[in-house]
Amino acid sequence: MLQMNETLAHPYFREFIVPLITIFFTIAVKVVSRKDSFIGITRDDFAIGFDLIVTSIILLVTYYSGLATQIHNNIANNPELCRQKLEMFPWVLLFSICGLWSLSTIVRIYGWQNGQSKKLRIWPGVILPTFTGIIYLLIVINYIA
Fold first, then answer.
1. How do residues 47-72 score in pLDDT, each as one tens digit?
2. Mind giving me the DSSP string for the chain?
3. 3 part of a folded domain
4. Is residue 15 part of a domain?
5. Of the candidates 104, 109, 49, 61, which has an alpha carbon nearest to the alpha carbon of residue 85?
C-alpha cells in the first residue's frame, strides 16, 4: 500500500499521468456522446496536442499562483527565487500562448486534407500537435516539480 501512495504522490503522476487520463477520458465521453449514426473513433479524436498544451498552461498558472500566495503569506522557502520565477511569468505565459496559437495556425493551414473529406492529415494534423503537447507538458512538469 505504501508503494501506491508514493506513486500517487509523485509529481510525474499528478502532473503528467492525470492529465493524460483525463484527456483520454474526454475522448471516450466525446465518442460515446455522438449520435448512433456517427459513433466511432476518428482521427480528430486523437488530436489531443492542443488539450495537452492548454493543460500545461493551466498547470503553469496554478504553479505561479501558488508562488505568489507563498510570497504574499511569507511562507516561501526561498522568497528571492520565487520572486525571480514570478518575474518570468508574463513571458512564459506569452510564449506559451503564442506557441499554442502558432501550432493551431500550422494545423489550420497544413493539417487538413483538401477536398470534400474534411479529415485531419495524420502527420501535421494529429502527430505533430500531439507530440508537441506531450513535450510541452513534460517541460512544464520538469519546470514546476
1. 889 989 999 999 999 999 999 999 99
2. -HHHHHHHHSHHIIIIIHHHHHHHHHHHHHHHTS-GGG-S--GGGG--HHHHHHHHHHHHHHHHHHHHHHHHTT--SSHHHHHHHHHHHHHHHHHHHHHHHHHHHHHHHHSB-SSS---B-IIIIIIHHHHHHHHHHHHHHHHH-
3. no
4. no
5. 61
User: Does residue 78 fall inside a structural domain?
Assistant: yes
Domain count, the chain: 1
Angle between helices 128-144 and 79-110 (to 10 degrees): 180
Residue 112 pairs in a beta bridge with 120
Q: Could you read off the pLDDT of 12-49 as tens digits, one per residue?
A: 887 888 888 988 888 888 888 888 877 778 888 888 89
Q: Domain residues for 138?
A: 31-144
Task: Take residue 18 and report the three cell numbers written for it.
Answer: 492525470
Whole-angstrom distance, CA of residue 17 vs CA of residue 43: 22
Question: Which of left, alpha, beta for 82 (phi over 0: left; psi -120 to 50: alpha)?
Answer: alpha
Whether 10 is covered by a domain: the verdict is no
